[in-house]
Amino acid sequence: MAYGNSIDHAKRAKQGFFTGLGLFALGGLGEIIGHALYAELPGWEQALFFNAEVAGVLIALFVPLIFGIVLPLIE
């Protein structure tokens, strides 16, 4: 087992949280700005922004759980 090559769990947890937060903000702002500029967005754009919001929330919740709690315990 290699002891010198360890993951910085705190850094990865923070990066994952902020990535999820950014993805959520991108989806929300895209939807708000899209509806402000155009009366009706196409269905694929609405689905894209909604999926970005959902994925952002899931990433922001689960990455810190995995990298901040689970991986340090099993390493």
Lay out the secondary structure:
Elements: H1 9-37, H2 43-74
Helix pairs in contact: 1-2
Descriptive notes:
- The chain has 75 residues and is mainly alpha-helical.
- The protein has one domain.
- Helix content is 81%, strand content 0%.
- The protein has helices spanning 9-37, 43-74.
- Helix 1 (9-37) packs antiparallel against helix 2 (43-74).
- The longest helix is centred in the C-terminal third of the chain and has 32 residues, at 43-74.
- 11% of the residues are buried.
Distance between the termini: 11 Å
| Poorly predicted residue ranges | none
Oligomer: single chain
Reported for the largest beta sheet, the result is:
none
Characterize the overall form. Answer: rod-shaped
Features of the shown structure:
about 80 residues, mainly alpha, 2 helices
Summarize the structure.
The chain is an all-alpha fold. The protein contains 2 helices and no strands.
